[in-house]
Design a protein that fits this description.
By secondary structure, the protein is an all-alpha fold. The chain is built from 4 helices and no strands. It has a domain at about 5-60. Helix content is about 65%, strand content about 0%. Helix 1 packs across helix 2. It is elongated and about 70 Å long.
């Protein structure tokens, strides 16, 4: 199966990687794509990031020191100053 790189800059990058690693162009593209896929799949999802953020906030807080929040306090958060 043929694979053509039409972008000159991309072609130059592939050739530079292949030259530095002393491998063929196909192998250079394969390695680069495999690394990028591994990097992307290793990222946590936005849901995971949100859950961790909530856990971190909860761990930093101390519910024993908290004060009850009433409607007046909540309303004061939205007042223009």
């Amino acid at each position: 199966m043929a694979f053509h790189i039409k972008n000159p800059e991309t072609d130059a990058l592939a050739r530079k990687v292949a030259s530095l690693k002393k491998i063929g162009l196909t192998e250079a593209v394969h390695v680069a794509l495999a690394h990028e896929l591994e990097r992307e799949q290793g990222k946590p999802s936005l849901v995971d990031l949100g859950v961790q953020f909530c856990r971190d906030l909860r761990a930093r807080g101390d519910s024993a020191k908290g004060q009850p929040v009433d409607k007046a306090f909540r309303d004061s958060l939205y007042e223009d100053t």
